[in-house]
Design brief:
Elements lengths: L3 E6 L3 H16 L3 E2 L10 E6 L6 H18 L4 E6 H6 L1 H6 L5 E3 L7 H11 L3 E3 L20 E5 L1 E2 L10 H5 L3 E2 L2 H13 L4 E5 L15 H9 L7 E5 L8 H9 L6 E3 L7 H7 L5 H14 L4 E8 L6 H14 L3 E6 L17 H24 L5 E6 L17 E5 L4 E4 L12 E5 L2 E2 L4 E3 L5 E3 L2 H11 L6 E3 L21
Parallel strand pairs: 1-2, 1-3, 1-22, 3-4, 4-5, 5-6, 7-10, 10-11, 12-13, 13-14, 17-20
Antiparallel strand pairs: 8-9, 15-16, 15-18, 16-17, 18-21, 19-20
Helix pairs in contact: 8-9, 9-11, 12-13
């Protein structure tokens, strides 16, 4: 009988990208995705892990312990653990969870099918962790979750040495793909009905460092503008230290590059930024924001902020609050600092009490939400162009059953719930123009009749895929028993910036 699989994903967009490749590899090897309501668990359950958050290992081992009981009841079932935590813990996983069949790292996801076969034949755990990239993930088979939007990795790894971040030691030094390979992949995706791509990298704007072209990322954005049928281009995440005026110009000059920028701040205090080993300071950061807004007045700017870094004083925290007020972020992904074993910050003196960090965090979130709400209120009465999201199984936002609203993403990536047009079929991937009628801190609403609906190739691609729907093979979030829900849209940043 054909064996079934399930991939459960923790972490950032890079892990989601890898999970789509893992699903593609398994299907290439003859596996099929487990049904959403299985009679029994999948024959192979793959955990694609993240090591960035505190206690990620405890959460994983707790879940593995539960899955172990399923394995005892289902002889022949296999469990595989990959990703950043596997790269970090290596042999520890099979010591703590000896029932795990395969452990593989971030550099050799292409080995998974062979490792599963070897573990089955030899009847013992297989651990294969490589120190450098074996095959660039984007060259592997893939099973994309969306019919019309795709992740495209332009680089892996990171050359920065931020004291709070463990990613460079797990993903390695930056390795760049050649522009021709990236553009060929995008063109192939567009031919399949994809109209939106997100360029991925731990630090996208340092793209080209490996082959000595400091202007490579701006050139890549402009080249994306020449691809017929590609309507929306996004990227994540850049680093303020390497962000150049050429990239700003490329964004402003290229119509299909969206007016959206995720620019990690981490702290507004120069003293804390130095301790974090972030190679920019407050004035440079605000200067970038000012130049982006001068070139693209309607750009939505989001950020990452860490509260409670070791040694952060109340004055340092107030500096961060000041930057938030000046930058007026559309949203901010805020984190309470927690030590990551293996990072320099984990051993620093002056680790702050939890109560102090929590109190500052609460003040920051309140300010971020206040500003985001004000920025959203300014859009009431304006016309926006939305790409309709696929809200099935929680993907891409919520569909309001009471009002029959649909959900879409504006060009600046804001989430908009809009009224369903009467007498007109609207499919995920189609484009709607509508007027904003109401604002909330994290979304907008458009309750009037849409001004226009445009059927697109993306909608055609969604319709073709769903004419004979296949079970989803990639899940996101905390693992649970059974096949996971379909992959939702990712709003958060890729890690390590």
């Amino acid at each position: 009988m054909t064996k079934t699989y399930e991939v459960r994903t923790y972490g950032c967009q890079m892990n989601v990208h890898d999970s789509e490749r893992l699903s593609g590899l398994l299907e290439d090897a003859g596996y099929v995705a487990a049904p959403s309501d299985p009679v029994k668990p999948a024959d192979v359950i793959v955990f694609n892990t993240c090591a960035v958050r505190e206690n990620a290992d405890n959460r994983l081992y707790g879940t593995l312990g539960h899955v172990a009981s399923l394995k005892r009841e289902n002889p022949g079932m296999q469990i595989a653990v990959g990703g950043c935590l596997a790269q970090k813990d290596r042999d520890t996983i099979t010591k703590r969870a000896p029932y795990v069949d395969v452990v593989f790292g971030t550099h050799n996801i292409g080995s998974l099918p062979a490792l599963l076969d070897r573990a089955r034949v030899q009847e013992e755990s297989q651990v294969e962790i490589l120190e450098s990239l074996e095959v660039f993930p984007s060259t592997l088979p893939t099973k994309r979750e969306s019919a019309f939007a795709a992740w495209v990795s332009i680089s892996v790894g990171c050359n920065n040495t931020c004291t709070f971040c463990i990613v460079p030691s797990l993903r390695g030094k930056e390795k760049d793909r050649r522009p021709g390979e990236i553009l060929a992949e995008i063109e192939a995706l567009v031919a399949e009905g994809v109209v939106e791509v997100t360029l991925l990298g731990q630090n996208v704007n340092s793209y080209g460092v490996e082959f000595g072209d400091k202007l490579a990322f701006g050139k890549l954005l402009r080249a994306c503008g020449e691809i017929e049928g590609l309507e929306r281009v996004r990227f994540t995440s850049p680093h303020p230290a390497a962000f150049s005026d050429d990239v700003i110009a490329a964004m402003a000059e290229t119509p299909n590059v969206m007016p959206q920028l995720h620019m990690p701040l981490q702290s507004g205090s120069d003293r804390v930024l130095k301790a974090m080993r972030r190679s920019y300071r407050k004035d440079r950061y605000l200067g970038i924001i000012e130049r982006v807004r001068a070139a693209m007045p309607d750009a939505a700017i989001t950020t990452d902020i860490i509260v409670g870094f070791p040694g952060e004083t109340e004055e340092d925290f107030l500096e961060t609050m000041d930057v938030v007020r000046q930058a007026r972020f559309t949203s901010a992904y805020t984190f309470q600092y927690s030590p990551r074993p293996g990072t320099p910050a984990a051993t620093m003196d002056d680790q702050l009490p939890k109560a102090v960090v929590q109190e500052r965090y609460d003040r920051l979130v309140a300010l971020v939400n206040e500003i985001a709400w004000d920025e959203n209120k300014a859009l009431v009465g304006t016309t926006v162009e939305l790409m309709v999201a696929d809200t099935s199984a929680g993907r891409g936002g919520k569909k309001d059953e009471a009002t029959h609203r649909l959900t879409g993403r504006a060009r600046d990536n804001r989430l908009v719930h809009f009224a369903r047009p009467e007498g007109v079929e609207v499919r995920p991937g189609d484009v709607v123009e509508t007027v904003i009628t109401q604002a909330a801190p994290h979304h907008l609403m458009a309750d009037g009749a849409p001004l226009a609906v445009r059927r697109t190739r993306a909608g055609d691609a969604w319709e073709a895929r769903n004419a004979a729907p296949a079970p989803a093979g990639v899940g996101l979030g905390m693992p649970r028993v059974g096949a996971p829900a379909s992959l939702p849209a990712i709003d958060g940043p890729a890690c390590a910036c």
